[in-house]
Design brief:
The structure holds two protein chains of two kinds. Chain A is α/β, with parallel strands linked by helices. Chain A is built from five helices and twelve strands. Chain A has a six-stranded mixed sheet. In chain A, strands 7-8-9-10-11-12 form a six-stranded mixed sheet. Chain A is globular. The chains are: A alpha/beta, B mainly alpha. Chains A and B meet through loops of A and helix 1 and helix 2 of B.
Chain lengths: 215, 73
Amino acid sequence: MDVKQFVNESLTSNAYLVRLEDSLECVLVDIGEYTELKKHLLLHGLSVQALFLTHCHYDHILGLREFINEFPKATIFAHSYTMEALKDPKLNLSFYREVPIEVDIPPQNRNLMVDQDVEIASLKVTSLHTPGHNPGSLSFLIGNFLFTGDSLIPGHKIVTKLKGGNKEQAQKSLEHIINNLNDVKYLAPGHGSMLPDSSFRQLVEEQYQFYIINE
Amino acid sequence: MEEQKVIELIAEALEVGIETIASETLLDDLEEYDSMGKLSIIVILDEEYDKSLSGEEMASFKTVSDIISFALK
C-alpha cells in the first residue's frame, strides 16, 4: 500500500493519499490545500474514489469545495456531526480565518460513519469513533496504517477545549485506539510525522498514563 | 476582577493550570501556546468578549498581558 502525506501551511495539518501500489484509484484521509494535491493527482493520473474526514476543523477540510467540484462522484465518509459542521463556519472554526468554509455535501455523496467497515478502491477501511477532540472525530484503519486525525498525536496532549471537546471522551477514545493497535505498523496523525510502531507505541502508552494520572 | 478572568480563560484554552500563568508570563515560554493553543484562545475571546482576533494580531503578542489588554480594550 502506498501512503503519501501532504502537510498544509495552515496549522501544519496533514492530509493523506492512500492507494494500492500500481492502482490508479485512491482515497484521501482529510483534504488539504488543493493545489498541491491536484498536481500530484495529475502527475500520477489518479482518480479519487472517496474522502474520509477525521473531523470537521478547517485545517482538515481546506480544499473541500475544490475537491467536490473536481470529483463530483466521490463519496465523502464522515460522522454525522462532521457532515453538519461542514455547513457551519463557527463549528468548523473557519469563521476565525480569512476565508470561511461553508459546504453542504450533496446527499448522494454523503456516507455517515461511526464504527464500521467499508471497501472502496480495493481498500478495506475501518472507522473508529474517537470523540474527545471533537464530537465527530473518527480514526481510520487502512491496511496496517492508522489515521488518527487530532484524536491522537503522539507526544502531544489531545486538545479538548475547542467547541465540542471533552477530556473524558478523549481518554475513552484513546483506549478505543489502543485496543485497535494490534496490527498497526504506522500511525498517521493529523499533525506531525508518520511514526513506525517502533516509536509510536511508547509515546501512546505515555499519553495514556498521563490521562490516568490526571484523571 | 476582569484581568483575572481573562487569565483563567487563557489557562482554560491552553489546558494548563492557572498557577502557570501570570500577566507577565512570556507566551513563548508556554509549551501549550502552539498553533492549536492560539486557535483555542481566538475562539474563546470571540465567545466571551465578542472580539475578533486575526492571526497577525496574535503573532504580535509577546506576553499574557498583551492578550488581556486586547480582551478588555
